[in-house]
Amino acid sequence: MPFNFELIKKNQKLEMKIIVMKTKISIAILGLLSPFFLQAQQTKGIIGNNNWLANWTNFKPATTEYSEASNIIAGTINKDTKLLKRNTYQLVGVVYVTNNAVLTIEPGTVIRGDDKTCGTLVITNGSKIIAEGLETDPIVFTSNKEKADRKPGDWGGIVIMGKAPINTLGGLHTLPFDLEPMLNHYGGQDAEDNSGVLKYVRIEYSGRKLSAAKELNGLSLAGVGRKTVLSNIQISFSNDDSFECYGGDLNMNNLISYRTTDDDFDFTQGAQINISNSIAIRHPFSSDISGSRCFEVDSYDKIENTDVTKKMTKINATNITLVNLEENNQGLVRESLYVRENTFFNLTNSIISGFTPFALLESNIGNGEANLAKINFKNLIINNCNGGITSESKGNNEVIQNFYSKPELDVNYTKIKNIELFATPNIKGNPDFRMSQNNIIAIGN
User: Fold this and answer.
1) pTM of full prediction above 0.70
2) CA separation for the pair 242, 279 (Å, rounded)
3) Measured on CA atoms in the order 51, 271, 296, 176, is the torsion positive or negative?
4) H or E, element range at 196
5) Residues with Cβ < 8 Å from 225, sequence gap 6 or more?
6) 3-state DSSP helix/strand/coil percent for the chain, to nearest 5?
7) H or E element in which residue 420 lies
8) pLDDT for 249-277, tens place per residue?
9) Per DSSP, what are the bridge partners of residue 350?
């Protein structure tokens, strides 16, 4: 039977046309999906379709003119109370919210902590704070001083005490802040406890040092339960820690710690914390010579004061950015995180830039696999760090470094300038510390 060459040619043309069409469809699909691929690649460090640091933050609070206080808050708030945006409030002395009262603060309200009396706001066990600002109208807690005179530690800070579990003996504890003894207690059995909402809130120039051993933080969270909402909070120029959790059970996200003197995020007493999409921005001239870290994580101060049948501290930190603004580090900014024994710590999908070294493990952790398995590092960019994961006991370092160098952990060490690593790491303008898309391939994603 003779071949029909005309039919074959037609079929070939048809096949070629189908192949070309398939190729065009593939290119079109790839074009449509490429933003999604890019977003999927850009999973390290803080993330977001938009720069969530914009609009509500303030990285130059020393230049901001706040209204003079028109109302004074002092003493005890023992019934439901609302603070209004049209007023500016001065926080005088230690102000306690008690008797299961709810303190509600309108978006845009400014509360100025009194310097002379160490203005401090304490939400006691059972009471609540509802401070839900807006991206366009944040709530601000700041110094009562004039612009030129503001400094870290001008006032106390915010203290919240709840009924969530802690691991100290007896399950209850007090804070070392010289608070009223009858009101100073936290802890319990309710991991779901609700102490209210802090959202789109700025806390500036807090962290008064009461004595060498007693230091207030920007935000102290003691036995606070997971129904409490903590999101979009910026703490700047705290004279001690920015955020400290004493036990409790919390989900926290979109937190900013900027130029704190001591630690950015401190966890102890069996805290069970999920923290995500958050950033610590350090500077050597705002660091304590005693040792300031972005993360300081332990389960207890003294084991003899601890109920070892209770949970030890467990921190799950994901999409975190830890950055030292001074790239020519003079030694004042040391390790980005410090982990003590009997503590569970997981750091994933994160960027750490400019520390000496990246991480320091307490010597008691040793180099045994059982202890190291409690501390996980995965999918990280460790940039411009002088040293990787190290121990206080140098003899442990070789085993530790081998343990964390497994390819599946995807821990990448790079040498890139901040301006190339991040979208816009310029505090003087409108900073954007999301990872620069131009460097996705270059830095090994």
Assistant:
1) yes
2) 12
3) positive
4) strand 196-204
5) 162, 163, 164, 190, 191, 192, 193, 194, 195, 248, 249, 250
6) 20, 35, 45
7) helix 418-421
8) 999 999 999 999 999 999 999 999 999 99
9) 380
